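Same chain as my last thread, 263 residues:
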Amino acid sequence: MKKYFLCLSILLLVGIFAVVQAEEYVVGEGDILRIRVYDHPDLESTVRVSGAGTIVLPLLGEIEVRGLSVSKVTQRVSQLLADGYIVNPQVSVFVEEFRSKKVIILGQVEKPGLYELRGITTFLELISKAGGLTNDAGDQASIKRRPAAGGQDEKILTIDMKQLVEQGDTLLNISIQDGDTIYISKAGLYYVTGEVKKPDAYKFESTSVIKAITKAGGLTDKASARNVKIIRKVLGEEVVLEKVAMDEPVQPDDVIVVPESFF
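reply #2:
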């Protein structure tokens, strides 16, 4: 588990440098923009994007900015000012408050809930905002995404957490979009009982019987290693696998039973 969170921390640091530039943030309703024009302090404005997707500026009046990135807003204001107002205007646009984009993250994070997106936000950055993963976090996350403009069907994106965090596949560290609902699954468990030193429930990960027994502290002096069995659910019914091999793969919800030796 410590290795898992160390990998997650490293990927978060790497992600900071891989994120799309802030000027590609698309403004939306409620965002507050600060607009400056070099050498024209009288034209400096702090404006809120209206529900209609517009802002109001001195000289120019109402301007539609719906669907525009910050850099595109800068270009539009510059073009309008250049059209009969200022020669070669130098315009800068900053997002002072991000209010337009919200997402929900649920499941195995420390602080599930509703979050505002402050600029371009990656999957791992959102997990960090939500306090990180819980100890029960599984290897899979799903993202329910609203249909694109003109579309009808929601998309379900699946992220392999193990591949992203432990194997460092940063292609899975996708940008989160407005309206996304993210769910972090709970890890499955397996159980080791009987003649082992630490019988308990353990977080499921790809493993074998011998590795599971080792994690449970190893065999006691009374254990019968040749008669280990697994109680496994198959199609809702319990099946007992007798005298399993030590390299037998463990499945979620398996109960590994190590009996006492009578010889």
